[in-house]
Amino acid sequence: MDDHRTLPVPSSLLSTRMPFEPLDYSHAAGSWIHLADGRRLLDASSGLVCVNIGHAHPHVLAAMERQARIATFASAGALRPAVQEELAVRLTEAVGRPSDAVSLTSSGTSAVELAVSLARLVQRGRGEEGRHRVLTARLGYHGNSTLALGLSGHRRRRPHPDDALGLAPAFDPPYPGHHRACPFDTCRAECVEEVVKALHEAGPETVAAVLIEPVNGTTGGAFTPPPGYLAALREACHRAGVLVIHDEVLTGLGRTGLPLGADHCPGGEADLLVLSKGLSAGYHPVAAVLVAPDHAEVLRGGGRPLPLMGTMSATPLAAATGLAVLDVLREIGALAPGRVRGAEVGDAVRAATEGLAAVRRIRGVGYFHAVELRPGTQAAALREAREAGLLLYPFNGFEADGGGEGLIVAPPLTVTADEIDFLTGALRGALARTAPDRNP
Ligand SMILES: Cc1ncc(COP(=O)(O)O)c(C=O)c1O
Fold first, then answer.
1. What is the total count of domains within the chain?
2. What is the pLDDT of residue 439?
């Protein structure tokens, strides 16, 4: 299935479509989407892997309403950003980086761009005027702006070569089948050598930062790096004077069962950290870049203007929403370090997929799992899943030849035991009915 495909459905909206009609819905609550015809579907990928605390959570709705009555907008610079200040403090505590500075914005893409700008400013503030390049992995996604797409290793979404600003991903990530020159049976921390090579090729004195997803999101589907990889990456980058930016737009704030995806591969803390989906939880656009204290000091003392804020960068409504989402995440234990949550979701995915002809392999961690499918089965699997009462997010294009099909299973972090039982049964039934010979 091609996620750029459009259907000839009469509509004034120019938007990406699935290869079948969108569903009419009446409302969404908790883990469920209620359809106009009275049926309901389990939102088994949390929307676009963002509705992490379920839909219509009363605590968040109440906080949004309260803030809306006070002020939805307050001119940045002219009015004291009290709610935004509170969010900055709470966010840094939530991810165990209490001394960081925070810059707020409105989407994952704009936060990635902001992190890139801040990294370049830090380098220039340190007297490294020539460091502007950003190196990224050949499997990864960082957003839909021209810059972010140019840096993203998403084969189906690569911009036209004329439009890519001369940008392209630079190194193979340490995932089976994607590290093409891997000298080991399976990737190890030493596979960071690919990044070192890319730094040399680019000329390390021109590189500002390496930008990576610590746990791969929906490009390859939930790949995790080998133990020690992020620490080795940090060491190699710092040796070369290069900053590390972690894109945790999708994984941050509990999706992988720990506060950060990078917590699964400790010792490689980022210089700059990008968060968004987990913070907005799909309620209101909000995103953040966390900056390690040394770098924040350079930014504050450098005498150079910080990147311009956009009009809707950090509204009080966005901040109040983020604060309420953090309340809920803390209450459900999603921000507690140490114990990986969500094992029951992994068990469900294993039970649902075992021995099925349509399934090639599965992987994942916490509340974030990928089911790789046999070629030609994705559209049928999505259709069968809908029939069985599941809404799932497709991913594709991760193979070297542009093929590769899969489904993301990523229910809200608030999913109940009964809902997981439903998920297991419905997914197994749907995939069992998805025989490769029933290709579209
Ligand atoms: C890892 C990652 N980075 C960046 C983005 C872009 O975020 P947004 O769609 O909010 O602009 C996404 C979105 O899916 C993502 O998964």
1. 2
2. 42
CA of 110, closest atom in ligand 1: 11
**Final residue of a structural domain among 274, 306, 331:** 331
For residue 108, report the distance from its CA to the centre of ligand 1, in Å: 5
Query: Domain check: are 263 and 150 in the same one?
Result: yes
Pocket test for ligand 1, best of 15, 144, 223, 276 (most atoms within 8 A of CB): 276
Given strand 25-29, what is the order of strands in its sheet? 25-29, 32-35, 40-43, 390-391
Give, in order, the Cα–Cα distances in Å from 284 to each of 27, 216, 319, 381, 412: 17, 24, 9, 31, 17
Q: Are residues 347 and 314 in the same domain?
A: no
DSSP state of 66: H
- Pair 251, 217: CB distance under 8 Å: yes
Span 372-421, pLDDT tens digits: 999 999 999 999 999 999 999 999 999 988 899 999 999 999 999 999 99
Tell me, what's the pLDDT at 11?
Answer: 83
Residues of the chain where predicted confidence (pLDDT) is lower than 50: 1-6, 437-440
Give the HSE-up count for residue 332: Cα atoms under 13 Å, Cβ half-sphere: 24
Residue 168: DSSP 8-state: -
Q: What is the pLDDT of residue 264?
A: 97
